[in-house]
């Protein structure tokens, strides 16, 4: 029988022991950045706080936040604490919202990242005899190599299929007997749909687990993927600024455990920036605890989330986070109501008449911001004609009104007319 935990000591530590460990690492990290990175020296001095002011965990609240623009202003390596001779890898975010964010790693950073990934994948049933198909994009994006490294450390058979060439993905699942599939949830849905179209029943293949992340997805979407793919859908969360994936992972009970020995989490009110209590929603903030090349201090992720101390049946004591509601950048304010794409998704996925494929359009109606959702009819509904389509659209719209509290017109388009995702799905099209 194989061991239950990848690293039992660290995964099941008592809260007190973890906090003592975190405090020690935090002290080291604030000193490390203050002494080596001019940006942090200026930022700490500006807030009249010194590394020695950190005497207990709560003292971290005295330290300045780090925001995305600091990374952009210091692009590419201004926040790097070590000389290039000590950097062994550089990743970068996709940079869809401006210049990419860089992520340099020392050999030690890379090793720790690999451990975090192995820990998560191990919790998700990946073992040495697993055939793991890695369909995350390989390259600058942290997903592809992050999953590769973690899987290699466990020692399973990795099939680095990369993102795209969907029919070949299905062929490989069948021919190589993949048990585990790693990709974004939206790409998994693309694969499921393509398999259905090709007449391949994924439930009859060896595929049993999915290791999904890199974008927000709802529980409703997870249920849909599990039912149609015949898999257990696990989750990973992370960001380039921290390490990439590996920040947190779900166990078999769907609780998302944070690797809190590597990243120290806080939640703050995004308006006042004051800490909020466990169980309350706010913006997720992380401080790196063991990084050397580019440790982030109180990094504002812009991800909206809730932290909880749950007693998880898996035995892990690592703190948990709820599913990400969305990025604050993606929050839409329509008729004074805050709306996240995930809320639209959770309603849409409940309707069997449409595919769980959608796009949200934002446009101007006179001077007012307006929203509209496009989703695809299932073939039978589409063939039933315009009246049926209209009826379904009205039904979905009414449910949106009930759940989200605003009028969201729904347009049902023909099957296969919305572009399929192979990586991070683009949900919002801003035409304002
Ligand atoms: P980019 O900003 O270009 O997307 P990253 O690949 O670093 O670059 O993306 C990190 C972001 O992706 C996170 O801050 C979060 O918004 C999103 N993300 C990653 N994993 C998840 C997940 N499991 N659930 C929700 N959002 C996620
Ligand atoms: Zn658990």
Question: How would you describe the overall organization of this protein?
Answer:
Helix content is 32%, strand content 25%. By secondary structure, it is α/β, with parallel strands linked by helices. The protein has two domains: 1-329, Rossmann fold, CATH 3.40.50.12780; 332-430, ANL, C-terminal domain (GMP Synthetase, Chain A, domain 3), CATH 3.30.300. The strands form four sheets. Strands 3, 4, 5, 6, 7, 8, 9, 10, 11, 12, 13 and 14 form a twelve-stranded mixed beta sheet that branches. It has a four-stranded mixed beta sheet with strand order 19-18-17-20. A hairpin with a 4-residue loop joins strand 7 (232-239) and strand 8 (244-250). The protein is globular, with a radius of gyration of 22 Å. The termini are far apart. The model has no long low-confidence stretch (mean pLDDT 96). Adenosine-5'-diphosphate (ADP) binds at residues 93-96, 213-216, 235-240, 301, 303, 324, 327, 424. Residues 251, 253, 255, 257, 312, 314, 316 line the site of zinc ion.
